[in-house]
């Protein structure tokens, strides 16, 4: 037997270990502040109508009848995934009470962003719930092999009455969206399975219209379910219902009100509200403070802003990140903090040629740079340029250039090669 790479000390060795003392924690139930946590219904705020609508879609499955499929739209942090998981979990519990065989699968399409990856994740979720010992290959096969595992012959769904599939951030599937929806929504009609299948498709893009094409539109309810942003009062109620994440009397007066007000600025994002409050608690622990104060909340808000910006950058398209890297490099290496599109473009071409072997046109890069202003990564303005210079657009970075450069190019090799190329250029 090989040596354990993570050795575990004996109980005797851990007796006086400060890590073993949980009494210093100001948290009681940290999980209540995690965005993945699915709370009981009495902790869910401002989503009664949406819950009732999703209940109407899925309730038939709990009684052995065919459920409906539906689309859930809304900005990040408006409770779409929470409601979908909450109602699906209740439907599965009621099905057990009724003696109905209801299976459920959750697929995060941001992580499983092709039809094959999504189908594999779905097959493994069903396998783990229905027949954990069933062999399914993890790689080397296409999407059809995973569909076959579900409904071919004695497939995993052979004895199931219904399957509810939650496809979260379905827009991340791109061109594969219609294909996977078609396979799922028409499997029963095509004689693939006798199991009723419901698809709950979720998108953060409220203008997302590419999802259902003519092959699948008839399988979904006519009107999508729209999740509006939370207002400050609703965010405050959400945090109040998670107050027991902390020990008694830990939160100073005004902490929850401030956290909810700060989150309300960002389109009523409940995830951000929870993140601010959780981070404030962590900062209080770091300071060895017995109370979470408004100052901790303000510092947590600043930290949360940085994290949000990094995630926005990492989710950008490759060439938009190369252009942003160019602006960050110029900001770090020059004496000024504002640069024309032409200056950014010249630097971008070096970055893009090194990383991708090709570069886009000047106009396309200008369009990409304009998009960074919406999430407040950059600031852009049109200037007259002075006598003889004509008018042009300038760009200014609103964050630390080192942080932005690291987010734009995560590969250490790419960063090293780009910096070498830029140092050898005349820029």
TrEMBL record:
SMART domains listed in its UniProt record: AAA, Cdc6_C
Keyword Lipid biosynthesis: no
Region (Disordered): 1-20
Chain ranges of the AAA+ ATPase domain: 66-231
Domain Cdc6 C-terminal, first and last residues per copy: 324-408
Gene Ontology MF, one: ATP binding
A Pfam family: AAA_16
UniProt KW keywords: ATP-binding, DNA replication, Nucleotide-binding
Residue numbers binding ATP: 78-82, 230, 242
Coiled-coil ranges (or none): none
Single biological process term from Gene Ontology: DNA replication
InterPro entries cross-referenced by the UniProt entry: AAA+_ATPase (IPR003593), AAA_16 (IPR041664), Cdc6_C (IPR015163), Cdc6_lid (IPR055237), ORC1/CDC6 (IPR050311), Orc1/Cdc6_arc (IPR014277), P-loop_NTPase (IPR027417), WH-like_DNA-bd_sf (IPR036388)
HAMAP family: ORC1_type_DNA_replic_protein
Sequence similarity: Belongs to the CDC6/cdc18 family.
Record function comment: Involved in regulation of DNA replication.
Protein name: ORC1-type DNA replication protein
